[in-house]
Amino acid sequence: MKVELRRWDDGDLGVLTRANTPEMTAHLGGPEPHDQVRERHERYLRLNASGEACMLRIDVDGVPAGSIGYWQTDHEGVPAFETGWAVEPAWQGRGVAREALRQLTHLVAADGRRRLLVAYPGVDNPGSNALCRGAGFEQRGSGTIPWRGGELAYNAWVLDVSPLDLDGRTPDVDERFDGPALEESRWWPFYTPHWSSKDASAARWSVGAGGLELRIDEDTEPWAPALDADLRVSHIQTGQRSGPLGSGVGQHRFRAGLRVTEEQPEHRGWLVQHGVIEVRMGAIRHPDVMVAFWPIGFEAEPDDCGELCIAEIFGSELDDAGGWVGVGVKPQNDPRLREDFEKVRIDGDLTAMHDYAVEWTPDRVRFFIDGRWVKTVAQSIDYPVQFMLEVYEFPRADGTRDTAALPHVLRVERVRSFPPA
């Protein structure tokens, strides 16, 4: 199913007419007279032409399915854009509104004229309120307004799509990888070795004036064949904690039944709780490869294991025009979290250097690419995280490897963290 947003045009009156039914207007006071529907259609065209609004038709697989848009307003004295939507009954319950709103938030962020997007669904409209919550909006009170001869009780939802602002902020750590070796007080150059061994999970790395390189070579062996088949990885992390030999205690429990096969010392390196975390790196365009930067809980307690996925980029999802970057929160084994992860399309050469960042508070996590907002998760992790930075080479079904493409090299220019503002 392909959901697309198309600019409102002369032929879209029928979309509003189909939405003007008792079922579709149950939370809006009922249907309007036809002349008011026509006037609304003409107003959409005028506002689009003047630039005061961006009104759009929602298409599903090329078929008109509803409408969405944003227009200028003020929210508590602050300039904002307001949004609203309508999806026809045949398409409801299939994720159409969710995808349309997701796309619209990116349009608002790219517009750049206003930094807040607001929505005011009726308090008796559970679907629209849930949609706002799921899109990262934060509820900021409620109220009533005169509406179609009566009164409408609404909830106020607000989404901050402002770019990342680091002006006047000083990083507590600005890692440029320009020394003679990795800074041992920060980095641990092994991939969760407690599930395998230090020898098998050791990173191939180099540092210098150009930053860090993590490398998978032709002679790089799978890191844990009994657990992860022929997956190869070159990885560094900033913490290490696991239990005694044979125990199930250890970071990144990526499957049930894991047992510590090699005891490891505890390493409390570069741990962060709240603030801004940023990496500048280049992806690898190869179908067998993925690069990622994903801080995870240090796991002083077993449930403290959630993940902030700042960037997850598969080489198979890059093309000549751009590619897809995975961002969001993953619970891993934290029962207090829900997965809120998506892939964001980014234009340009992702094998070149780009900045990937989160702004992390006790209440929410905002994700950015090259300083531009791309996603908000309206939940948070409330414990220290360690950084996980790597390149993976995935096994092929036929067991072969593209040795001509080796080595696979992840280039990282810097990693920075900023304390909470």
Unreliable stretches (pLDDT < 50, length at least 5) are none
Fraction of helical residues: 10-25%
Give the quaternary arrangement of the chains. Answer: single chain
Distance between the termini: 42 Å
Quote the beta fraction: 35-45%
Mean pLDDT rating? 95
* Rg: 24 Å
- Strands, count: 26
- Structural class, by secondary structure, is mainly beta
- How many helix segments? 6
- Overall outline: elongated
Largest sheet: 8 strands, antiparallel
Structural notes for this entry:
There is one protein chain. The protein has about 425 residues and is mainly β. Helix content is about 15%, strand content about 40%. It has 6 helices and 26 strands. Strands 8, 9, 10, 15, 21, 22, 23 and 26 form an 8-stranded antiparallel β-sheet that branches. Strand 6 and strand 7 form a beta hairpin. The radius of gyration is 24 Å and the shape is elongated. The two termini are about 40 Å apart.
What secondary-structure arrangement, pairings included, does this model have?
Blueprint: E1 3-7, H1 13-19, H2 34-50, E2 53-60, E3 63-75, E4 78-87, H3 96-111, E5 116-119, H4 126-134, E6 138-147, E7 150-160, E8 173-175, H5 198-201, E9 205-208, E10 211-216, H6 225-228, E11 232-237, E12 239-240, E13 267-268, E14 271-272, E15 275-282, E16 289-293, E17 296-297, E18 307-314, E19 322-330, E20 340-347, E21 354-360, E22 365-369, E23 372-377, E24 385-386, E25 388-393, E26 408-418
Parallel strand pairs: 4-5
Antiparallel strand pairs: 1-2, 2-3, 3-4, 5-7, 6-7, 8-26, 9-10, 10-26, 11-25, 12-13, 14-24, 15-21, 15-26, 16-18, 16-25, 17-24, 18-19, 19-20, 21-22, 22-23
